[in-house]
Amino acid sequence: MTVTAIRPITIDEFLQLPETKPASEFINGQITQKTMPQGEHSQLQIDLCETINQIAKPQKIAKAFPELRCVFGGLAIVPEIAIFRWERIPRLPSGRIANRFEIYPDWAIEILSPDQKYKQVLGKLLHCAEHGSELGWLLDAEDESILVVDSDRRVKEFTYSDRLPVLTGIDLELTVEQVFSWLSL
Fold first, then answer.
1. Total domains in the fold of the chain
2. Nearest to 155 by CA among 175, 128, 177
């Protein structure tokens, strides 16, 4: 769902608006409300977050955050999962985690919903790569494939038993089949 303002607004004005559920994003001057996640989407999101955090968090390498607004490069996006290297996680002077993340994620994961357009979701991952993200994944549960965007904005499709690239320093081996096997309970 796209909400059109009577007059164009700035990203600062967008950030002052009340939160919506599901979250809204600010992309290319447009406010777009994210699609409400459904079963497959939620299952993939939670299992990916748990899997990444089980390996990366105890060693203080990185942390995966679900549905976290990231503001950078003139956009405000909410990837399904935003992974930040430990030392880049915004913190308050007290050491507590900050509420606002005004930086790009090191690794962004998007999960395509049935009513979303590939171009729009892939565009967010390309924006992340353009502004410093090392890696992006776009999961398509319908055809059980994962598009991977690298830091040079190259896009490659991974399927079946292909081993997926992960953020450097995270000792995690996953294949496309393993990721989509989580959909079977």
1. 1
2. 128
